[in-house]
Design brief:
With 482 residues, this protein is α+β, with helices and mostly antiparallel strands. Helices cover 34% and strands 21% of the residues. Helix 8 packs across helix 9, helix 8 crosses helix 11 and helix 11 packs antiparallel against helix 13.
Length: 482
């Protein structure tokens, strides 16, 4: 019996190889440099083995490869940047057909309309460099240049321009997308609006986006990056957090983009101001006065230099690219961090985290507020479920081959914080995926109030779950007739 099963698996794999060959797409040869690079995960502790890796260079090749997977019963996963914390670009498990998109990364700006057509394998640093070079244009996006546009844009896309300019997905005018049934459609605010809505917030569940039509803005003449030292003690932290919250809610100007960054050794505020140093200092003054924080460093630079400052590496990243870390990460999206929740957060920070010797950090992005472009955007235009949240928190700890201690450290910090909150006051951010969530919980945390509608859309577009991964949307189930 075992030999029959093995034989069937071999024959299925041989059929896949034959089908991919017929589709004229390039396939990574097992053991080749391309294969070894493409299967190497960003998070080293999460290595998965695919059934095959197709590396197309045309839309027709993508269509052909996906058709092979569908016909032969393989789950199909698009991989753009490969930066997923949970290795979801490798399927999040063994045995997927991977569509490696990073050979398709062109960026073409129309300097009359200021619309950009961007292939879905582009990385954020390449996108930024090309938009700037071709027309002094930009979009809002994250800071890591090796992150792929697709995973980033399709699930939110927060970065150091978001308070001023919104999330990355807010700049998507339209998309061409390959659906599970093999057809290609265009999705925009006027065409296939339901698909447009679903893609922008939960896009990895419905198809493979082939290219993006992006609106752009003129890159600012200068920005000022800065670091603020925030000296905290256990008995002052709650008051400091509440002063920060009042500032973010009511005072932080649109031009100011900022986050709190804490490690065992230090705590600081860091960010960029779209303007000069004098105006930055005036914008920060109310917060510094309330918290006793001090501006430690700042420099006014060009837009592209500001991106390079936070990239901490080469900005214009294209194929081939490889970066690895070994870690566990978790997120929270919160409407606020005050009162009992702030005290719980602070007590864990000082009583537990300060004693943890492994490298860890907590990053709290200032996501909302009355002047935030994230809050000003139409919440019903996309399926991003947490636009009403004030903060995005990321908890991160480096791990070794037995990371259970790190899991508990991070999980306990997050659960301690949310223990004092109502469920509607918090969720989680898909772009910092948590490998300790089961599928049911993950869907609730990532997609919240939009979950039922998204599951219905999944049932319509991908009922057989061709585009499946361990925490993907489950299709809505029609109620049984009694």
């Amino acid at each position: 019996m075992v030999s029959l099963v093995q034989g069937a698996a071999f024959n299925k794999h041989a059929a896949l190889e034959d089908c991919l060959s017929g589709s004229k797409t390039t396939v990574d040869e097992v053991g080749s440099d391309d294969y070894n690079r493409d299967i190497t995960p960003f998070n080293q502790r999460l290595q998965f083995t695919p059934a095959a890796i197709a590396a197309p260079t045309t839309v027709e090749q993508i269509q052909g490869a996906v058709a092979c997977g569908a016909r032969l019963g393989y789950k199909v996963t698009a991989k753009c940047g490969g930066h997923s914390y949970a290795s979801l670009g490798l399927g999040g498990e063994d045995g997927h057909l991977i569509i490696e998109l990073d050979r398709m990364s062109s960026v073409k700006l129309d300097t009359e309309t200021n619309l950009a057509i961007v292939e879905s394998g582009a990385r954020l640093g390449h996108l930024a460099a090309e938009l700037y070079a071709q027309g002094n244009r930009a979009i809002s996006h994250g800071t890591c240049p090796g992150v792929g546009i697709s995973g980033h844009v399709l699930h939110g896309g927060f970065g150091m321009a978001s308070h001023t300019r919104g999330l990355a997905l807010d700049w998507v005018n339209g998309m061409d997308v390959l659906l599970a049934n093999g057809t290609i459609i265009h999705a925009s605010q006027t065409e296939n609006k339901d698909v447009y809505w679903g893609l922008l917030g939960a896009g990895s569940n419905f198809g493979i986006v082939l290219n993006y039509e992006l609106n752009t803005f003129e890159a600012p003449a200068n920005v000022t990056w800065f670091v603020v030292n925030l000296p905290l003690k256990q008995n002052t932290t709650v008051a400091a957090l509440e002063s920060i919250e009042d500032y973010v809610l009511n005072t932080q100007p649109a031009e100011l983009n900022m986050r709190l960054y804490a490690t065992r050794q230090f705590t600081q505020l860091e960010g960029t101001y779209q303007g000069n140093k004098t105006d930055l200092e005036a914008a920060l003054e109310p917060l510094l006065n309330k918290t006793g924080a001090k501006l430690a460093a700042s420099q006014t630079v060009s837009w592209i230099q500001g991106l390079e400052h936070f990239a901490t590496t080469k900005l214009n990243q294209t194929y081939p690219y490889n970066q690895q870390e070994n870690f566990y990460g978790k997120s929270l999206e919160l409407k606020g961090l005050n009162g009992a929740a702030a005290k719980n957060f602070a007590d864990y920070w000082f009583n537990v985290a300060k004693k943890e010797t492994a490298h860890w950090y907590v990053q709290m992005d200032f996501h909302g507020g009355k002047n935030s472009a994230v809050w000003k955007a139409d919440p019903d235009l996309t399926s991003y479920a947490h636009r009403d949240k004030l903060y995005i928190l990321q908890f991160y700890i480096t791990t070794d081959d037995t990371p259970d201690t790190g899991f508990k450290f991070i999980d306990d910090w997050a659960s301690t914080t949310t223990a004092a909150l109502e469920q509607e006051d918090w969720g989680m951010y898909f772009n910092y995926p948590d490998t300790n969530l089961n599928r049911t919980k993950a869907q609730e945390m990532y997609w919240g109030k939009n979950l039922a509608k998204l599951q219905q859309l999944k049932a319509e577009l991908d009922p057989e779950e061709l585009f499946y991964y361990p925490v993907s949307l489950s299709p809505a189930v029609e109620p049984e007739l009694v």
